[in-house]
Every structure is written in structure tokens, then in C-alpha cells.
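Researcher: We plan to redesign the surface later, but first we want a full-length starting point. C-alpha cells attached.
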């Protein structure tokens, strides 16, 4: 079986010591991967470091220099344009990879894209699989480290350069991937250490780009939502399975789901492995004693935590006379783009 080829793309802007440590760790722990370094108009000190580092690498690395700072997203796309390998992995210079970081990351990206477990004080609170699970689907990705399959990139393209270098550009990419049937995973078998990322642009410029990116995302895809779903007391496994399949697709498109489950339902979910389908699907058990009162209480807590939360009745009449402005399960489907 052929070993997949890998390009590692590192967008660089100054910080020569941090960048050198990042590059050295990549070479040390993933020597068979090719480096694609994009120098985003760095200072002379960084240029000299890159020249010194690249000298012994020959064909093991490609170096591209931009004469002006074009921003994070465009510099990443410049590196992706040079990649012709089976997988492209973005690694920013504030990241230190660890032993065995790459194999599991690449294996997880075969169905689309994947990210590792990020360790450190600046890990951006990236999602993690539940304890004991090596890999889970997620929507919470980061530009710190992100592996992309060539098949997916060929179909959906690269990142939108009119959007920010953070949440909304990534959310847009997740939506595009989901619309074409690709999946996103976080893998506990791959770990990296994350420091403080270099910020591109002034605070005012960043705020403006973020605002515009949010508006673009909303116009393109609509609002990201959080749903509280209550099935009533039904324990029909086949009926629940159909709902779970739909909710998994909802989570793949970047929405969040909290499932309010009676005791028997919660047991079914755990036995069926539905408690670790996606990091954006959360199980919320309802007490067996005074269940209706506990349901009200938990809905109240969710509404305080997520003021815009939408309540959903999983089966007809499940929330009747309990919650106003509740939508039925079928209405969720209208929020999902048709798969291409």
C-alpha cells in the first residue's frame, strides 16, 4: 500500500527564533514530509534564518517570498497552491509538533480534514474527543494546525481570502466541506504544543475584517444556531436513530445541539455510541424524579447560557404546552444546504 505524500505549509511573518524552533520540530518528527514555507514579507533577520535553515534541505522544502504582507489566509493559499501531495497540513510558527503527531492526523483527514489536540495556555479551547475515544467529528478547527485532503481541496477549493484569518473563514470552510459530504475530525492521537500566535494587522483592521467576515458568512449560510432537542419519552431505537442521523448532519454544518434525554433514552444513546458522534452534540440527562420540573429547569439554564437557543420537539407534541416558539424536527432540515 502506497504511503500518502504530505506537504506541510508554514506561513511565516517575523519571529525568527519561534519559527526556527517550529521548523526544526517538524523536520525532526516528520522527516518524510515536504516543507512549503511562505515568507510573508518578514524582516531581514527572519529572511537570514530561513536562508540558513533551507540550505541543506534541497528538494525537501520549497520557499516562497511575498514582497508585502498579504495576510494569513492569502499566505496559506499561496502555500496550498504549491502543494501537489495527497495531504496538505497547515502549521503556524507558534506551534511545536511532537513525536508521532502526523500519522494519526493524516489518517483522520482521509475523509476531509482533521486537527490535533492543542496543548498549552494558548490552545484556543479547541474541542477534544470524549475520554477514551481517539477520534471525533468536530466543527471547531484552527489555523494553528489543520490537515486537508487533496480530494477535498480539489472539490471545494481553498480558503476565502475576503474573510478573516480566524473563526468565520474556518466556519465557511467547514460549511463548504459538509455541503460536499466531507467530514472534519479532531484526533486525540495527535498532539501539538501551541504558543501565542502572531496577529496580522492592527486592532482596528482586525475588528473591521471580523465584522465583514461575519456579515459574509451570515449572507452566505445564515446564522449558526444552538438547538435544544426534546424527544418526549419515546424509546423507539429506530425512530431515535433517524433523528440522530439528521442531528449529526446539523452539527457537521456548524450548529450546536443539546439533547434533553430521559434516563432510558440516555442509556440507549450511550449503548449505541451516540454520545461521541460529534463535539457539537451534547447529552443532557433529565432526572428520573420530577422529570417535568427538571426539564423546565434545564431548559431555563440553557436559555440563560445561550439566549438565542431554539427549542425543538423531536416527535409530535413532545414539547406541547411546555415551551412556546418551539419548532418541529422537520424544520431543522430547511437550515441545511443541499449536498452537492
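Model: Full-length starting sequence:
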Amino acid at each position: 500500500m502506497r504511503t500518502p505524500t504530505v506537504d506541510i505549509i508554514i506561513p511565516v511573518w517575523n519571529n525568527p527564533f519561534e519559527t526556527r524552533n517550529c521548523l526544526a520540530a517538524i523536520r525532526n518528527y516528520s522527516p518524510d514530509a515536504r516543507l512549503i514555507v511562505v515568507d510573508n514579507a518578514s524582516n531581514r533577520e527572519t529572511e537570514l534564518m530561513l536562508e540558513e535553515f533551507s540550505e541543506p534541505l534541497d528538494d525537501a522544502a520549497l520557499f516562497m517570498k511575498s514582497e508585502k504582507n498579504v495576510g494569513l489566509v492569502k499566505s496559506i493559499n499561496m502555500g496550498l497552491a504549491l502543494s501537489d501531495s495527497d495531504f496538505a497540513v497547515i502549521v503556524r510558527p507558534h506551534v511545536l509538533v511532537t513525536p508521532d503527531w502526523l500519522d494519526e492526523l493524516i489518517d483522520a483527514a482521509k475523509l476531509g480534514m482533521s486537527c490535533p489536540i492543542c496543548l498549552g495556555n494558548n490552545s484556543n479551547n479547541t474541542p477534544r474527543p470524549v475520554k477514551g475515544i481517539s477520534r471525533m467529528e468536530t466543527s471547531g478547527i484552527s489555523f494553528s494546525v489543520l490537515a486537508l485532503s487533496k480530494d477535498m481541496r480539489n472539490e471545494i477549493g481553498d480558503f476565502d481570502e475576503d474573510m478573516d484569518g480566524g473563526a468565520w473563514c474556518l466556519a465557511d470552510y467547514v460549511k463548504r466541506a459538509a455541503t460536499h459530504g466531507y467530514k472534519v475530525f479532531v484526533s486525540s492521537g495527535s498532539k501539538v504544543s501551541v504558543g501565542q500566535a502572531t496577529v496580522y494587522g492592527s486592532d482596528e483592521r482586525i475588528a473591521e475584517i471580523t465584522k465583514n467576515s461575519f456579515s459574509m458568512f451570515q449572507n452566505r449560510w445564515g446564522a449558526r444556531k444552538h438547538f435544544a432537542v426534546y424527544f418526549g419519552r419515546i424509546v423507539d431505537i429506530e425512530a431515535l436513530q433517524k433523528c440522530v442521523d439528521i442531528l449529526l448532519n446539523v452539527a457537521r454544518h456548524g450548529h450546536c445541539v443539546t439533547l434533553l434525554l430521559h434516563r432510558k433514552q440516555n442509556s440507549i444513546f450511550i449503548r449505541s455510541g451516540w454520545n461521541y458522534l460529534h463535539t457539537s452534540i451534547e447529552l443532557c440527562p433529565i432526572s428520573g424524579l420530577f422529570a417535568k420540573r427538571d426539564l423546565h429547569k434545564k431548559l431555563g439554564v440553557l436559555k440563560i447560557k445561550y439566549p438565542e437557543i431554539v427549542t425543538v420537539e423531536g416527535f409530535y407534541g413532545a414539547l406541547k404546552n411546555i415551551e412556546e416558539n418551539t419548532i418541529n424536527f422537520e424544520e431543522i432540515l430547511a437550515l441545511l444546504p443541499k449536498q452537492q
